[in-house]
UniProtKB/TrEMBL annotation:
Its cofactor is heme. Belongs to the cytochrome P450 family. Residues 460-479 have a biased composition (Basic and acidic residues). PROSITE patterns: CYTOCHROME_P450. It comes from Catenulispora acidiphila (strain DSM 44928 / JCM 14897 / NBRC 102108 / NRRL B-24433 / ID139908). This is Cytochrome P450. GO terms for molecular function: heme binding; iron ion binding; monooxygenase activity; oxidoreductase activity, acting on paired donors, with incorporation or reduction of molecular oxygen. CDD domains: CYP170A1-like. Residues 1-26, 440-479 are annotated as: Disordered. PANTHER family: BIFUNCTIONAL ALBAFLAVENONE MONOOXYGENASE_TERPENE SYNTHASE (PTHR24291:SF50), CYTOCHROME P450 FAMILY 4 (PTHR24291). InterPro entries: Cyt_P450, Cyt_P450_CS, Cyt_P450_E_grp-IV, Cyt_P450_sf, Cytochrome_P450_Monoox.
Amino acid sequence: MPKSSVPGTASEGHSQEAVSAASSAPSAVASTAPGFRPLLGHSWQLVRDPLGWLDKCRQAGPVLRVKLGPRAAYLVTDPDLVHRVLTDPAFEKGGPLMDAARDLLGNGLATCWREDHRRQRPLMQPAFTLPRIAGYAEVMREEAAQLTATWTPHRETDLIDDLSSATLRVMIRAMLPTADAEAAGKVAQQVRILLDGALLRAAVPFPFLFRLPTPGNRRFDRARRDTFAAADRIVATARAKPDASGLLSALITSDGSAPDGSDAFTDEDLRDQVMTLLSAGGDTTATTLAWAFHLLATHPEAERRLHEELDTVLDGAIAGPDDLPRLPFTRNVVSETLRLYPPVWMMSRITIADVDLEGCRLPADTEVFFSSYQLHHDPRHFPDPEAFDPDRWDRREPGDRHSFIPFHSGSRKCMGNTFALTEAAIMLSAVASVWRFRPTPRHDARPRPPRSMTPADVHLVPEPRPGRLSETRGIHAGR
Ligand code: HEM
């Protein structure tokens, strides 16, 4: 599939009718975000304490000017304006953060420009329909059953490792069944290093720092080489088995519409989709589950109510998609976890035309940041925002939709959102039916931004729930 040119300016590659016009009225000047430092601008805040800084920014105004070193950008903190950034075609997925991600992960669905996106998304969409997800749910249930058999009672475990392996196995079996597990594991592990590096490289705009032969930079370069090589191997295996099921085989046989096949997927295109799936779909769900188990381990009343619901509705069986509507508290736990710790906590867009935002005129080619974490912790929309309160989802006003965006919205909304919510509910309910977790002294559940939203350390001690472990294993085997 030919790549379209990446526009460097507003005029290249984009039709004017698609973009909103800037107001000709005199424009307000956005305030500068708090925490500015000479030379570094706000990069210092983003590296040192991004979540604390975002909270101060919310109080400073709906649209703020920020500087990342010499680079000027804007930060939008109001939910309705963020919704506009996500849905108005004047804002395109781009800017230095996306350029860094595209450089590292290729031109797959999550990182490509609009022209490629228009073609790629419909081709990928059939793999994410509800009937297909119902099929993947069988794989999720099997992997959930295997996960519950992983732990030894009272022996400490690194939950992030356990959950990442389980969600990776689900992804491979569901979407990339021809991939060998070792190559996919390598991609998923190294992609973590690459994503961490991409965020850091966007926050610290001094490229020479990342060319120095430091151990961190060498590790990063090695990860990039190894990841691409492993993803190439996954594509070669899929090409050798065109009749197999899975996303790659579907893309290979989709052929493209041009008579000469010039728009068919090349090996490079396919490799980029492998990188997309393994970066967008693996750790995000594992991170959510790790936070959920941490929150339950530290909130006994919520844990008790979850157990009560699971015991009543499932009685030891592993949930399937049809059971999920009957598990409202389980779903509330997942929503509340995604509110508190959204895995994709910060993102950017670039304006492709002059735009008027809340009276501020943003010229074309302006980088605009927004943060789901910051919206989710806004006390105007979530009273007592730091509290873990799953019941708040029963009290929530239906009109207040724009303030909760773990999967974002608009044309670049997460394509795997239903997949992820189904997987999270199945894994959470399967594990919590039989296990509870207790923190260890070295358990350190602080989020690690700017690297990622993964908790710093989720070492927990699994304890079998009285009377449920052996009973449930029997039921799992029989269902
Ligand atoms: C809790 C889990 C997940 C969260 C919180 C999450 C969040 C997100 C967000 C916020 C975006 C949009 C990024 C943007 O606006 O620029 C996104 C994009 C995407 N996600 Fe997810 N994701 C999750 C799981 C998954 C899974 C399991 C898959 C695949 C099976 C997946 C596949 C994708 C893809 C392909 C895109 C790119 C969509 C496009 O640009 O058209 N995600 N995700």
